[in-house]
Amino acid sequence: MYRVKLTDFEGPLDLLLFFIKRDELDIYDIPIARITKEFLEYLQYLQELDLDIAGEFIVTAAELMQIKAQMLLPRPEGEGEEEFDPRAELVRRLLEYKRWKEMAEELERMQLQHRRVAYRGNFEHDPKVVEQEDADDLIRDVTLFDLIAAFQYAVNKMPRKHVHEINKLNVTLEEQIDHILRLFDGKDQISFYDIALAMTEKIRIVVTFLALLEMMKSKLIAISQFEPYGDITIVKLPVEAAA
């Protein structure tokens, strides 16, 4: 049985992605019997260490076994060309988790890169480099989890719609980046809450969140947070920073 330290994995999806990457498997065509066997072996090891943490792994193990059982059932004839794949939902969740994980790693890399930089109110000049102790007095380090918390707060503040409506929302990442840049309108900084809480569609908040991550990656903006679980301040960087 393949064993690793518990701290190597953040959850069951992280473990599944590890198996897929290690064995060079096709994420769109997961060999469910093989992956379930390896997952159950690791789960047995995990239960020996910490039953509480193993809870979420047990739920995923049950889902894997259910998928495995569905895969073994004979497929009814005459269902058409597009047959139902029991793995589809798992694949969707894995791809979504993989995307968030990559964003978190990129955000952490950028955070380390800009850790010694503090930004002044006058953005006509280059940012100044300060000692880490001074920078910590000015802003609090913002992690992906801080951003997600702010995102979740904005989503929870949206009014609940009792009638389900299907509306096609044409909004692209590029359009939302342009929209955010226009919101500065001569200002040095804007509030994430002010942007998000003005929106009425959840998908637009999601695209805005992804746009902010892309803008950070392109060094168009920096983000700061002055208190834990507080608002996220979006700071426009000088053009030189993005060059």
Descriptive account of the structure:
The structure is a single chain. The protein is mostly helical and 243 residues long. It has two domains: 1-113, no CATH class; 121-242, Arc Repressor Mutant, subunit A. 56% of the residues lie in helices and 6% in strands. It has ten helices and five strands, in the order ααααββαααβααββα. It has a three-stranded antiparallel β-sheet with strand order 3-5-4. Helix 2 runs antiparallel to helix 3 (51-72) and helix 6 (144-157) packs antiparallel against helix 9 (202-217). It is elongated and about 65 Å long.
What is the fold's blueprint, element by element?
Layout: H1 12-22, H2 32-49, H3 51-72, H4 88-113, E1 117-118, E2 128-129, H5 132-138, H6 144-157, H7 173-184, E3 189-191, H8 192-196, H9 202-217, E4 221-224, E5 233-236, H10 239-242
Antiparallel strand pairs: 1-2, 3-5, 4-5
Helix pairs in contact: 1-4, 2-3, 6-9, 7-9
Oligomer: single chain
Enumerate the strands of the largest sheet in spatial order, edge to edge or round the barrel: 3-5-4
SSE-based structural type: mainly alpha
Counting structural domains, the number is: 2
Content of β-strand: 5-15%
Which CATH class of the largest domain is shown?
Mainly Alpha
- Which series of helices and strands comes N to C? HHHHEEHHHEHHEEH
CATH topology of the largest domain: Arc Repressor Mutant, subunit A
User: How many β-strand runs?
Assistant: 5
Number of helices: 10
- What is the approximate shape? elongated
What value does the average pLDDT take? 72
Question: What's the name of the CATH homologous superfamily of the largest domain?
Answer: Structural maintenance of chromosome 1. Chain E
Rg calc: 22 Å
Main sheet attributes: strand count, strand direction, barrel closure: 3 strands, antiparallel
Work out the helicity level.
55-70%
